[in-house]
Amino acid sequence: MIVVQIGANRGNDDFTEIIKNKYIEKLILVEPLDIHNEKLNECYKHITNKHIENIIITDDENINKSKIYFHKLDGIEYGNNFELASLNKQHSLNIRSHYNENDLIEKELKSLTLNKLFEKYDLFKIDLLFIDTEGYDEKILKSIDFNRFDIEEIYYENLHCDINSLRTFLEKKNYKVTPHVLLYGWSDKAEKNKKYG
What we know:
three-stranded mixed beta sheet; 6 helices
């Protein structure tokens, strides 16, 4: 299997469970914050052909740097490991109403579109794409060139987007969408409709 995760954090998550006991030919893990690299390497140590990209995936091909935001209370010293890092400055404030905007930390990193990432690794046929980007899933999915990249299964977080618009979009791209899957029901699964290609 060729698998890609956008928003890998530190591993040991739903994605880890999905690919467990499967032969992984190539694994691409995108996690903007390099503080998680050690845990990701440990989590996937059994996979030899893996690549960790400490970049931001964006939907804008005209930019090569983007900013990510996280709150200091989501830091390692508080045990949360930056789980709410987001491209949307307001996102973590909306999720955790007791946070103060003055305590947000901003980090600028290299950015790529998902199309460019696929090109970089010569991925034109992907078995599984898993996206959890704290409010940016919809923009990333709608930026994919589905005419060039054949993706069999897609999982994405359904919490912070126009879910009906996204489901309709994917259905028009010949995917069958199953809502509210995995542990907490916070993800949707889109499977390529084999009948139509």
